[in-house]
Structure formats: C-alpha cells, structure tokens
Specification:
Blueprint: E1 6-11, H1 15-24, E2 30-33, E3 50-51, H2 60-70, H3 77-97, E4 115-116, E5 126-127, H4 133-147, E6 151-154, E7 157-164, E8 170-177, E9 182-192, H5 213-220, E10 225-226, E11 231-238, H6 250-254, E12 258-260, H7 280-294, E13 299-302, H8 308-314, H9 316-324, E14 334-343, E15 346-348, E16 360-362, E17 367-368, H10 380-396, H11 419-436, H12 443-460, H13 471-492, E18 517-518
Parallel strand pairs: 1-2, 1-9, 2-6, 9-16, 15-17
Antiparallel strand pairs: 3-5, 4-5, 7-8, 8-9, 10-15, 10-18, 11-14, 12-13, 13-14
Helix pairs in contact: 1-4, 1-10, 2-3, 3-10, 5-13, 11-12, 11-13, 12-13
Length: about 525
C-alpha cells in the first residue's frame, strides 16, 4: 500500500522531531511519524533541563571549554561552538511558545528563570521546568504541532526501513501498521529523529528505550556511523528491581546531593576534586567500582540535608515518584545504580543534520554531530536537539526537489517469526551487552561479546528472507547488527577515552585521535 507523496517526512516525535516539524511547516508540507506506542521517545523523561549561556555571569567560551573537557579530546570544536552559540536564541524561541520554565524567585537574580548546575559545568546554566523539563517542552511543542495546518501527524505507523533509489538518494520510509500491513511513505526529504541505542542494554533510564533502529535504517542505505563505542551510563537511576526504570536527575547532585556507599561513607571526593559534580563517565565508573569493592548492587544518593521544603521545591516530580514507590527522599537516601542513558555516537551528520546519504537527515540522539565527543555533558542533549533541528529546518525550507530515479526493489516474506523467539534473542543480546560492553570493558569480554552476538545474528538471519515484516522483528534485526558494530568500534579503540574504559589499554593513545567511523559492510554476511 502506498500513500500519497510527502514533501518532508520526519520519523520520531520527541523534541527534535517536533521542533523540526514546526520549523519546516511554514514553507513545506510535513508528515510527522510518531508511533502511538512510543509517543515522545526519551524526550519526555528528560528531567534536568537545557544547558545554555543565559546568566550575565556566564559566557559562550566557558560553556565551550566545559564541553570540550567533558568530550575528552574527541569533540568537533566547530560543532561545539555552533551548538553553544545557538543556545540563547533557542531558549528564547521556546519561551515565545510558552514553555513554563521555572522562574527564579530572587529579585536580585541576573536572569528571570532559575538556573541550576550539573556535572561538568563550571557555572549555573541549566534552565529547567522544575524537574520535568522534557515533559514540559514536549507538551508545549505538541500543542503547537497539533494546531499547525501544515503538519500531518501519523500515530498509526512504525517505520521499519528506508526507501532508496538507484541514484543513492533516500526517498521515504517503509512502515507497518498495527494490523501488519505495509505502507510506503514517499518523501522528497526524510529526517530521522528516532533516538539512541540505550535499549541494547538490560538496565536503562527510559521505560521504553530505542535500540538504534534509526541508526541502522540509515546504515542500510549506506550512511556512515560514528563513535558507537561511547554509550553513556547515567550514574543515578533509581534502584528498584521490582519497578520500572526512573531517572534521578543530575540536578539532584547539582543542588548538593552526596553519593554514599551502603555503610554511609561518601566516596566521590577521594576520586575526583569535583566530587559528585564530575562528568558522568567519572561518576558512573566510581559507583561501579564502589559496588564491586563492597559487593553491593547499588549505592545511595543523599539529599536529606537540603530539607524537605527545598526538596519539594526543586524536585517535585522525583519526590512524588519516589513516594509512590514507598520512599520518602526527605528522610531516606535514594538507592541508585548506573544505567544506559544516552548514545554519544550515531549517524554522522554535518551542522545541518545532513548524512552521507543524499536527502537523508538525522537530528537528536540518533545523530553524531561531533558535539559530545567521547562523553556527553549533562543537559547538552536537549540543547543539541534544538540547535540542530532548527539548523536542519533552515536547510529544508529551501531544499530543491530530488532528481528522479527508479526505487530499489524490496520483497517481504509471509512467514511469521514467533514473538517469544524474538523476545528471547533480544534478552540474550541485552545480557551480552550489559555484561561485556558496559561501563568497564575488557579485551576478552569484548571478544566474547563479538562471538556471542554473531551467533545470535546467525540464528536469526536465515529466517529473514521469508519472514513476514513486523515492528518487533525489524527492531531486533536493527539492534543485533548495531550491537555488533558497537563491539567492533570498542575493539578497534586501543585506548581508554571518555565513556570507553578498558583496563587492558587504560591510557589515552594518540593526542589527536580520530573519531570511530564505520559502515554496515564492516559486518560479515550474517
């Protein structure tokens, strides 16, 4: 089944996709694909806020310098400077749309909205909406999208692949509806805003994380991927084996939260002079090491000293959520554990979101812009969504029609792959990635991961030619291959840098290392 042609197709309805839709729709028709089962991706769960130079006591150079330090030598300085410079105008645009950022009650404050501080930042520059910034921004953007006559919102389809042509261009997406029927959505320009790859791991900070589907859809058309080995683990996810994942914002430490082991001892000051405000990779490794040293399955994040009034004021969402799960964080430390949170790597793009495939763009966590390098600094992710969605929008508003070329053929089978088999393979993949390719990696473990993931791929690959298309099957096949490419990138980096820490090669290598670039052809036929 083929729908009518769409000028611009955006796949993904988080902050990046919503911003882009609003930017483009004044000039060109837009279809925004936002599957009902994954409505706002990870954006809605973002608590901390958006980093931007807003205070008169802050400046662009300081934000750039902090970001370069956090990226551990792998940031693209031009991308960093571009992103940081876009921050004030992007925040102004959100305010004009009505995003309810938290005001600063101090009449002497140099900026009217409250700015907090998070790990890696040398100043207070995180604007936020209490401790539920993602939800506030998404809800505001969605209201504007719903009212815009130039945006067609589709919640009934899930993209399972991209459509290419003989000229090497992307020409839209191949989708499936809940009844299993195929749809092709032709487009002059296609934009991936599908999120990252935290779903490759067992424990994540999102209840329904992406598994890198957009990255692999781009790779299937020949797009270059970059820096896949740099998967960020958020240091503080609520530890509750019986409940769904829930992020404890970096801002909790920014406002004075202290990390303790189960004996009540603070351990961060002895590891890094920035203590709890060190970059996330440092804090996550420290927690992991402390858990291994003490044989515990979590540590504690203590904010009792802030007092109940301050806790309720700064962190109403976290306080209420923990209370619903039987934990009063005003009187009891919060049990926390690191969990997969953000993919610093993804589809390589330029400053306008363009990939190496003509007519295909990527924005948000699915993209690798060069901003984060080897480690993302807190709250730079939503800033990146805004800066690159708006930049991509400026390009797409004036893009010319694509050249005409025959579409590449594609044939689906009709034999279903049982959902329980899909779930079993996905679970095995996540177990391998969590055990061997997580916060600390070893050569032997990476070799084992490569072998076991190849075996899982070989188990599934023979079923694919005759398999009936389905969202779960497509997601698993994308995830398996991305996991294998991630391991290949980790094995190729013979040094420890940023989020990639391997005790078998603990030192930095070349003072000017190159980003890890890889294509799908790097895998064997399985």
């Amino acid at each position: 089944m083929t729908d009518s042609k769409h000028e611009v197709l955006i796949i993904g309805g988080g902050i990046a996709g919503l911003v882009l839709a609003l930017e483009v729709a004044e000039r060109r028709p837009v279809t925004l694909l936002q599957p009902a089962q994954h409505p706002q991706g990870a954006s809605r769960w973002a608590q901390g806020g958006i980093a931007a130079v807003l205070s008169p006591d802050d400046d662009i150079e300081a934000h750039v310098a902090d970001t370069l330090v956090a990226g551990d030598g792998l940031c693209d300085e031009a991308a960093v400077r571009f992103t940081v410079e876009q921050g004030p105008a992007a925040i102004g645009w959100l305010l004009s749309l009505g995003v309810p950022f938290t005001p600063d009650p101090d009449p002497q404050a140099g900026y009217p909205y409250h700015l907090t501080r998070e790990g890696g930042h040398g100043a207070r520059r995180i604007i936020h909406a209490d401790d539920a910034t993602g939800r506030a921004v998404v809800d505001t953007l969605r209201r504007h999208v719903d009212r815009h006559p130039g945006i067609r919102l589709r919640t009934d389809l899930t993209a399972i692949g991209l459509v290419g042509d003989d000229a090497g261009q992307c020409r839209g997406a191949r989708c499936i509806d809940e009844a299993g029927r195929l749809h092709e959505l032709p487009a002059a320009d296609t934009v991936l805003a599908t999120g990252g790859a935290s779903g490759l791991y067992r424990h994540t900070t999102s209840p329904d994380p992406a598994c890198g589907e957009g990255m692999m859809m781009a790779a299937e058309l020949g797009a270059e991927l970059m820096n896949l080995e740099f998967q960020q683990f958020h240091p503080t996810c609520l530890y509750d084996p019986e409940g769904p994942p829930f992020l404890i914002s970096e801002a909790v430490r920014g406002e004075g939260g202290r990390l303790l082991n189960l004996a009540g001892e603070r351990f961060m000051p002895g590891i890094d002079p920035r203590a709890e405000l060190a970059p996330r990779d440092v804090v996550a490794r420290a927690i992991d090491a402390e858990m291994q040293r003490t044989g515990s399955d979590h540590v504690l994040l203590d904010i009792r000293h802030l007092g109940e009034a301050a806790i309720r004021h700064h962190f109403p969402t976290i306080h209420a959520h923990c209370a619903e799960r039987g934990l009063d964080i005003a009187t009891t430390p919060i049990p926390v554990v690191p969990a997969a949170h953000y993919s610093c790597g993804g589809v390589a793009t330029n400053l306008e979101g363009a990939t190496t495939v003509p007519r295909l763009y990527a924005i948000g966590e699915v993209a690798c812009t060069g901003l984060h390098g080897a480690n993302r600094m807190a709250s730079n992710s939503l800033l990146e969504c805004l800066a690159f969605a708006r930049s991509c929008g400026r390009r797409l508003r004036h893009a010319r029609p694509p050249e005409s070329a025959p579409l590449l053929p594609w044939q689906a089978g009709d034999t279903p792959v049982p959902l329980d088999e899909i779930a079993a393979i996905r679970s095995a993949m996540r177990e391998v990635m969590s055990a061997r390719v997580a916060i600390v990696r070893h050569d032997a473990g990476l070799d084992e991961a490569a072998r076991r993931l190849a075996e899982l791929a070989e188990r599934l690959a023979p079923r694919l030619p005759g398999a009936a298309p389905g969202a779960e099957l497509a997601s698993l096949w994308h995830a398996l291959r991305l996991a294998r490419l991630t391991v290949a990138c980790a094995l190729a980096r013979r040094e420890s840098r940023g989020l990639h820490f391997n005790p078998d090669c603990p030192l930095h290598g070349d003072p000017a290392p190159h980003p890890s670039r890889i294509r799908l052809e790097a895998l064997d036929p399985a």
